[in-house]
């Protein structure tokens, strides 16, 4: 009898070392999210820091809402509440999560527990304010005062379907914003160091309170792994060793995906158990911390937009010149090798034309740094959308040009024997189709409503590019690497990529301008045509110089051939000019050197 009593005492009396779960594996199973239909959660748009007004009261003097940190609603959603559940909130005060649980209208019974009488009184006042005593739902709420850290006296055993263990923690938000009750102060150092042991015992008792097949949601308001993952692992190990409770971790990936898609939450990728909602300044959730990254102010946006406006004008003029000389000169017009280059100039020209009014709207709508940017989403999509889509189409043409050059470099004989006209037309059409689909998706799916945050051409895709992300992947397979960075960063809400994408728009605009100048200067015939038509300079000389190889070759062949180049050299010139010929020219067809030098 004495031996059995000793074993029972050892079962309940234990100290947490912190290494109980070090060598244990916690099995995982999928978790399916069912959002409670009756739970109404409202939030300002991302990026808004406006204060909530005082809640309105109805005829029964019941306030219209409870102000809750955005991260605090996540544990309630993670519980997966079902109709008829018996629920225990182990550390219920001050009552925000308990109230959210009851507002789902699903639990048959909710037991709100807390160890301190003062906190229990605070909890009672909060619940009675929002749940009238004569309401049917008030009969489902029961208040209890029990010490959840006492494993010996804990008698809430195997009687609940769902348990919420929102345990005491270092409360990072308060610790960095106020001195009172700061656990990181010297007088509270012992209390802070004992937190993991307290949390582990609470979680063990929460597991003991469950029926077989029930679930516990463990939550804290801290970023500390010793109070998060370590507590879960140690509590699961202790519950197994001392009480025979087998635990399975439920994957919360579906809940995380839904919350991420809202754009209001930011999660840590380094959390090994469940997920960690990080401080996220644009949503004003979590501890008062500033996330890393570059700060883009309204002034910076204005300066960038002014710079882009200047570049846009230059881009329109430069690409117009290239298109003008190409259409005017028949020799250029009939050159199949120039179709891709001219297609890119045409798309860049349209892109700049579309961007021109959009930049005017952005500059006219500029606001001081202390005010939120706010543009009409309909205007942005209808004016800025085509420009963004054509920018991606230009990247497709650029990729086609790169492939064209690769074939010319590694397979010259085969390449120059083929006509490039249909290949060029196909690439041009594909670029326009991808751009059209991109813009169409934006029009059909993006909600047309006012939305803050659209600040510049590179970053306006807060709305549009997030929706066009999938078609952007298709374009990326053909070469839209800058566009992928832009869309990817804004779609999955990575702040650093968001800020990089701000400057990607600038780089894309500069690249469109550079295309016109590079191709105009790199292609000799276009360069000469521009000089003749616009400047009257750069006129090709009557006897342009040729390479040393050509001069020496002509000298050797002049002994047996008429003046001018041989049939072999003429045939090579024609192949390089895109006019492949398999029959040698007769000497009577020999044109002067200046006509062959293209």
Automatic annotation (TrEMBL):
InterPro entries in the record: 7TM_GPCR_serpentine_rcpt_Srbc, GPCR_Rhodpsn_7TM, MeTrfase_RsmB-F_NOP2_cat, MeTrfase_RsmB-F_NOP2_dom, Mito_rRNA_Mtase_NSUN4, RCMT, SAM-dependent_MTases_sf
GO annotation terms (biological process): RNA methylation; RNA processing
Biased composition (Polar residues): 549-563, 578-589
Chain coiled-coil ranges: none
Domain SAM-dependent MTase RsmB/NOP-type stretches: 1-283
Entry's family note: Belongs to the class I-like SAM-binding methyltransferase superfamily. RsmB/NOP family.
Descriptive protein name: G protein-coupled receptor
């Amino acid at each position: 009898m004495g031996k059995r009593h000793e074993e029972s005492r050892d079962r309940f009396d234990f100290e947490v070392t912190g290494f109980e779960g070090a060598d244990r594996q916690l099995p995982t199973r999928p978790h399916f999210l069912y959002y409670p239909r009756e739970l109404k959660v409202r939030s300002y748009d991302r990026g808004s820091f406006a204060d909530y007004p005082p809640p309105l009261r109805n005829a029964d003097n019941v306030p219209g809402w409870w102000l809750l940190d955005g991260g605090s609603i996540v544990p309630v959603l993670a519980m997966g509440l079902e109709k008829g559940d018996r629920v225990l909130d182990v550390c219920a005060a001050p009552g925000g999560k308990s109230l959210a649980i009851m507002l789902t209208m699903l639990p048959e019974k909710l037991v709100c527990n807390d160890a301190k009488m003062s906190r229990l009184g605070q909890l009672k006042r909060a619940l009675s304010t929002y749940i009238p005593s004569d309401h049917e739902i008030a009969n489902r709420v029961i208040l209890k005062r029990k010490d959840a850290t006492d494993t010996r006296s804990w008698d809430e055993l195997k009687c609940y379907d769902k348990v919420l263990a929102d345990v005491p923690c270092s409360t990072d938000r308060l610790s960095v914003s106020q001195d009172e009750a700061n656990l990181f102060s010297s007088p509270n150092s012992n209390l802070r160091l004992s937190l993991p042991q307290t949390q582990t015992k609470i979680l063990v008792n929460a597991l003991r309170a469950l029926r077989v097949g029930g679930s516990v949601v463990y939550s804290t308001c801290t970023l500390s792994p010793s109070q998060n993952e370590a507590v879960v692992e140690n509590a699961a190990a202790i519950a197994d060793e001392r009480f025979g409770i087998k635990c399975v971790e439920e994957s919360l990936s579906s809940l995380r995906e839904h919350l991420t898609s809202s754009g209001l939450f930011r999660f840590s990728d380094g959390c090994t158990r469940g997920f960690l909602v990080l401080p996220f300044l644009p949503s004003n959730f979590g501890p008062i911390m500033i996330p890393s990254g570059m700060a883009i102010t309204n002034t910076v946006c204005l300066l960038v937009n002014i710079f882009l406006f200047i570049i846009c004008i230059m881009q329109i003029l430069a690409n117009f010149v290239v298109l003008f000389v190409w259409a005017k000169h028949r020799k250029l017009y009939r050159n199949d090798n120039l179709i891709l280059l001219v297609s890119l100039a045409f798309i860049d020209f349209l892109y700049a034309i579309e961007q021109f009014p959009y930049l005017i709207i952005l500059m006219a709508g500029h606001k001081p740094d202390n005010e939120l940017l706010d543009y009409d989403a309909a205007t942005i999509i209808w004016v800025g959308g085509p420009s963004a889509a054509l920018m991606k189409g230009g990247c497709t043409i650029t990729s086609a040009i790169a492939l064209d050059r690769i074939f010319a470099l590694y397979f010259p004989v085969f390449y120059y024997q083929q006509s490039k006209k249909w290949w060029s037309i196909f690439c041009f059409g594909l670029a326009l189709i991808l751009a059209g689909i991109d813009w169409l998706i934006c029009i059909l799916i993006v909600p047309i409503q006012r939305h803050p945050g659209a600040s510049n051409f590179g970053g306006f895709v807060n709305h549009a590019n997030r929706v066009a992300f999938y078609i952007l992947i298709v374009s990326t397979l053909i070469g839209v690497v800058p566009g992928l960075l832009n869309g990817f960063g804004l779609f999955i809400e990575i702040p650093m990529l968001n800020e990089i994408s701000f400057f990607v728009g600038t780089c894309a605009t500069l690249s469109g301008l550079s295309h016109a100048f590079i191709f105009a200067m790199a292609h000799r015939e276009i360069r000469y045509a521009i000089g003749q038509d616009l400047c009257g300079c750069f006129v090709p000389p009557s006897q342009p110089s040729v390479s040393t190889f050509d001069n020496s070759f002509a000298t050797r062949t002049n002994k047996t051939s008429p003046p001018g180049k041989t049939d072999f050299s003429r045939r090579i010139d024609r192949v390089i000019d895109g006019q492949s010929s398999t029959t040698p020219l007769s000497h009577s067809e020999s044109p002067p050197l200046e006509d062959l030098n293209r």
